[in-house]
Amino acid sequence: MASLIGRLRAHPRAPLLAAALAGAATALGQAPWGWWWFTLPALAAVLALVAAAPTLRAGFLRAWAAGAGGFILAMVWIVEPFLIDPWTHGWMAPFALLLLPGGLGLFWGAAGAFVVWTARGWSARLWLLVPALLAGEALRGHVLTGFPWAMLGHIWIDTPAGQAAAWMGALGLSLLSLTLAAAIAQAATTGGHRPVAAAAVALAAAGLLGGAWGVGTTRLASPGPEARDLRLRLVQPNAAQDLKWDADHSRAFFFRHLDLTAAPTADGRAPDLVLWSETAVPFFLERPGDGLFMAAEAAGGAPLLMGIQRSEVSRDGGIHFFNSLAVIDPEGAPVAVYDKHHLVPFGEYVPVLGRFADRPGMGWLGGFASQVLLGYSAGPGPVLLDLGAAGRVLPLICYEAIFSRNLRGTDRPDWLVQVTNDAWFGERIGPFQHLAQARLRAIEQGLPLVRAANTGVSAVIDARGQIVASLGMGRAGTVDADLPGALSQTPYARIGDWPWHAALALVLLGATLLRLRRADH
Helix, strand, or coil here: 91? Predict the structure, then answer.
C-alpha cells in the first residue's frame, strides 16, 4: 500500500487529480450541505496547489480542474431538467453536466494562469489568487448573460457571517472565503519553519472570521421591524413537471390551485393578497376563457399575483411570447403585468439559433424549458408593481433572483416577490441552492422576500434572510403569513458591486504592469 501511494504521488497527473478532488470538496459548503468548515481547508488546498504550479499551463489546468470539480458536484442537479422528457432531451444531460461546469471552470483556469504568469514565489502567487479568483467570480456573473450560481461566498448564507452581505454583497462574502482559505494555506505551509509567522496568520484569520460572525450575530439579535398588517397566502400546487402541460393534468392542477386558494385559513383570517407560482395556469393571459374570473373568485376578493404566459403581435406582424407575472383584481381583470427580462439561455430561448425555431422540426430551438416553440422574448427590464395598500413590489421570476443586479434600476420597493417553478431542479440540491440565493437577495437589500413556488420551496423570508414560514419539497398546500417589515436601505443596496469591480481591476492591472516592467528588465 505504501509503495502504491508513493507511485501515485510521483505520477505527473497527481497534482491535477488532487486539485479536482479538492475543488469538488469546496462544493460541500453550498446548500443543502452547508459544510463551510469543509470548504475552507479544501479551498486552501486548491490555492496551494495552483500557487505551486511549475508552468503557466500547469497553473491553468490545476485551477480549471478544481473549478470544474466543484461545479460538477454543486450543480449535479443540472441534469434534472433534461430528464423531465428523457426521450426528447435526455441525450443532452451528460453534455450539460460536463460542459457547463467545464465552462465555468475556465474562469478559475484563467485566474490560475494569470498568477503563474504574473507573480514570483509561492506566497505571492497564493495571495494574488485571492483577487484573481474573485475577479473570475465577478466575470462569470456577467459573461454570456452570466451565471453566478454556487459562488464561493454562498457558503455563508445560512450562518451569521452571511449577514455581512448587507454591506458587501456576494462578492464580499466570496472575498471572505478566499482570504480565510489563503490564510489557512499560508499558515499550514510556513508552520514548520516559521511557527511565529504561521501563528500570526492563523490568529488574523480567526479574528476575521470571528469579527464577521460577531457582527452577523449582533445584527440577527437586534430588534427587527414589525410585520406589516398584510396577510399573504402562497399557493404551492406541487404539479409534477412531466405532467404539468399534459392536457388532462393541467386542468386538474388549475383546479388544485383554486381549491387551495379558497381553503379556509387556520385562524379564520382571510388573505389580503394571494400569490401563485411561475406559469401557474394552462391558458394565456389574453385568452383566459373563464380562468381569470375563476381564480379571482377563489381568492375571495383579494388581489392575486399569478405567474402566466402571454403573447403579443409586434408591429412587423411577428408573435412574441412572454413569461409573465400578472396582478389580477377581485373582478378577474389583469391590472398590471411584468414580463421576465433576464431569460435562461437554452432554457427559455436559444441564443442566435432561436430565430429558426418556427421552422419544421426545429421547435427545440425555442428552449427546452419554454412552453412555446418560438421561445420567450425578454421584457424591458425591472419594474415596480403598485399593489395599493400592499405597497410597491419588485417581481422576480425564477432565475432572475440569482442576480443581484436585477434588483436595481427602479426606486426602492417595499418588498420583493419571486415566483418560480423549481420542479425543474429535482428535489435534493438545486431547489435549496435557489432558495439560499433568494435569502441572500433579502439580506443584501434589507427587504422581505416572498417566494411562491410550484414546489420546493415556497417561503416568506424576512429582511435578514431568515425564513418566517415555508412549505417544503413535494408538498401541495398553502403558506399563510403576515408580510415581514423592511429594514432601512443597506449599504450594499445603495452602492452595489462597482467598488469591488474597480478595486479588482486596479489590483490586477497593477500586477500586470509589474510583470511587464520586470520583463523589460
Answer: helix
Cell (9 digits) for 469:
414560514
- The cell for 83 is 430528464
Catalytic residue among 340, 348, 400, 444: 340
Of the candidates 423, 310, 315, which has an alpha carbon nearest to the alpha carbon of residue 83? 423
- In Å, the largest CA–CA distance within the chain is 80
Residue 340 falls in the annotated catalytic set: yes
Angle (CA) 208 210 216, round 5°: 105
The pLDDT tens digits for 1-17 are: 345 445 545 667 899 99
Please write the tens of the pLDDT for every residue from 306-364.
999 999 998 777 889 999 999 999 999 999 999 999 999 988 988 855 444 444 443 44
427 has catalytic annotation: no
Nearest to 24 by CA among 69, 61, 74: 69
376 φ, ψ (degrees, to nearest 5):
-95, 155
The residue behind cell 419544421 is 360
User: Are 12 and 135 in contact, with CB atoms under 8 Å apart?
Assistant: no
Residue 509 burial by CB count (10 A; 0-12/13-18/19+): exposed, middle or buried? exposed
Active site residue 297: no
* Residues belonging to the chain: 521
